[in-house]
Predict the structure of AcrR family transcriptional regulator.
Amino acid sequence: MVTVAGKTERASKPERAGRTGRARETREAILDAAERLFAEHGVGEVSNRQICEAAGQGNNFAVGYHFGTKADLVRAIVRRYNAEMEQRRLRMLAELTDSSDLREWISCLVLPATGHLDALGVPSWRARFMAQANTEPALRQIVIEEAVATPSMRRNLDGMFRLLPGLPEEVRQERAGMSRMLTVYALAERERALHEGDPTTRTTWEDTAVGLIDALVGLWPAPVTIPR
Amino acid sequence: MVTVAGKTERASKPERAGRTGRARETREAILDAAERLFAEHGVGEVSNRQICEAAGQGNNFAVGYHFGTKADLVRAIVRRYNAEMEQRRLRMLAELTDSSDLREWISCLVLPATGHLDALGVPSWRARFMAQANTEPALRQIVIEEAVATPSMRRNLDGMFRLLPGLPEEVRQERAGMSRMLTVYALAERERALHEGDPTTRTTWEDTAVGLIDALVGLWPAPVTIPR
């Protein structure tokens, strides 16, 4: 095909739509396969070749072609997850505005994730993928960047920190890490138990959220000891 | 060599001592290598062959010969770790007796581990091994069995639960899981950061313990919501 004066020859409209649709399907298949393999083995232990095979892609370069580096692929999975939760959190926050009840703000941190996992059904790999991504510092940085970058999360944390004015910045960050860690691992553990038919501590995702929120309502405003 | 009437021919005494010493060295080398490899890659991702190679054992059956299954090997690493902490915790508990200060009992949960890691120096892999073992449910069960089986841990938890009489049994177990998870992952993260020369949130292991203890003093007695 000939390109004349910057004008690239294009496929006809229906053909383009077909290609775009196929590209989207390929991307989704890769995201699904990578999420599952990362969840099961850890991000560092899975190769692009394994992801391509699991996604039914004959071409081992499909991951690189569609996503770039492994970090980019992890970011894409995290974004897909955050996008699902964003609407849920924004709806919840709309009802809070200036609430002075710490529990309500903490609930907005937890319930979008449990609601989303509940909607996904069994099996899902999303919570276990998040747990694995949080294990590796470089990837955890991506998770944090992406999470804090969402408008809903910024509003959520601002609303919460207004009620914890005495918390030093370092302790705030430390507890944010603890809070994230507790949530991520509790959800991953429940997702795994549901998948493998093991008993679970709590009956439903909603009850799981209640247990987590209770604990975080104690953890966030806990007294701060200044080390000697 | 001939065995007569149940009487096995034995090596002479100094030779036996040499063999026992070598066997002990081999066992320690395997424990060290396994701890490091499990910490870096996850227990499920490491083969006996890799452990034997890293331990300088020509014979790939050395792991099986000295320890049995992989679960037995994990148990042996956990026991070595617990043994190191047991003396520290017993010494701390001896000073508490009937303390009615929840913080003191919670300190006994955390300080033996941070004190031990401090004494190990950099690099160590112990905290990261524990984090990896806690990720896999079957192995986590071993960790819990071994930890609860130590006399110091039983006394520690008994003393603590006396101060939390209203906590339902399920919530007690749930929070024990959260408390363990928070501690294990915070110590693993610090151990990794020290090893890789990354910045750490807290300056010393002792300060790290203070941050953890503060959070747990809030988490353990947090209000309990009965789900609808």
User: Anything to note?
Assistant: Chain A has ten helices and no strands. The radius of gyration of chain A is 21 Å. Confidence is low (pLDDT under 50) at residues 1-9 of chain A.
